[in-house]
């Protein structure tokens, strides 16, 4: 029984999408090459493109429809949710790495990850529910029901992370691609309908909240028949999974807090109008940051790569190249980019859009380095991310009073961190390829 389960697990991991195979006859010619690409991890890129287009389509629509002041409140709450989504991403990274590194125990890993994610989602939702009055006050929402929606959104969001990690680790690309599409398209459709009905920050975030339930319900459906456990191992038990998820989550928390705390600080140091302008500029940053989403697909391979230095250089070159192209395009065509960042109502920030694109490039490179550290099971570099977070909050809270000032502080801190982490990563890889 154990041998059959082990063989079946390896078979699932090797099949690529959890069920598609191409015969030798079908494997010839350009059409077959395209089919093979779309039948494996290539379809994830398409799914993520659709997810990001839908997500940013709704974000840009909300900026135009509800106006700068409500949009500033909405975006601040979105940043808070993105920060707490580190639990979701930590669970996803844990599941993907463990299953990819040890497919013979996929059944045990799946069961324990889902068990941990259920408890984590309920705990996070409960904390946000209790802390809703504080969130309402700190973000200046003036709407307790809007703050409460964060708790309602946290539960399905966190569970979806575990589901995505299982599908990612098993390389079930088709199901993972559908899950990603459902993470964006329902938000656009439902959210747009709600803000057209009532253009408020509550309706905007209600659309986001309802959108989180679509991928969660799909994940429940595709994982309803769990894998057979086969043989088990103590290292994949409940406590080891929790430990790795916590380590991954705190690392990702440091990164997401660093790259999202500026909007939360901006709500306290800028007036409502300027914070809305800053939020519009961050649409460009987020677009550039999430453009190179191949990191998610590459994560299982990164954890077992025999040449991590080459993998890191290639990945950074590709991410940097894409980001550089975006910065150049934004500098040359700021008026066109402004159309996608909220329109003429946000014209005051048009001259800074290329700087926001540069910030997005820096954030994307930092994201790559953080995921690389997690894939190699290193922790040293994360300390510097925490230090950068403290510096950013301290400086921005006491020395900033304008949109350009806040943007300058954030960019300077993240550029310095990027240079230091890059140097440390390559030095450590040269000294000890499997540790960082």
Task: Tell me about this structure.
This protein has 436 residues and is mostly helical. Helices cover 80% and strands 0% of the residues. The longest helix is centred in the middle third of the chain and has 32 residues, at 238-269. Helix 4 runs parallel beside helix 11 and helix 5 packs parallel to helix 8 (144-169).
Descriptors for this entry?
single chain, 436 residues, mainly alpha, 80% helix, globular, disordered N terminus
Task: Put the structure in a nutshell.
It contains 19 helices and no strands. It has 436 residues and is mainly alpha-helical.
Please outline the helices and strands:
Layout (H helix, E strand, L loop, with lengths): L1 H13 L14 H10 L3 H25 L1 H17 L1 H16 L4 H25 L1 H7 L5 H26 L3 H10 L2 H13 L3 H22 L15 H32 L2 H19 L3 H9 L5 H25 L1 H6 L13 H23 L4 H20 L3 H29 L5
Helix pairs in contact: 3-4, 3-9, 3-10, 3-13, 4-8, 4-11, 4-12, 4-13, 5-6, 5-8, 5-12, 6-8, 7-8, 8-11, 9-11, 10-11, 12-17, 12-18, 12-19, 13-17, 14-17, 15-17, 17-19, 18-19
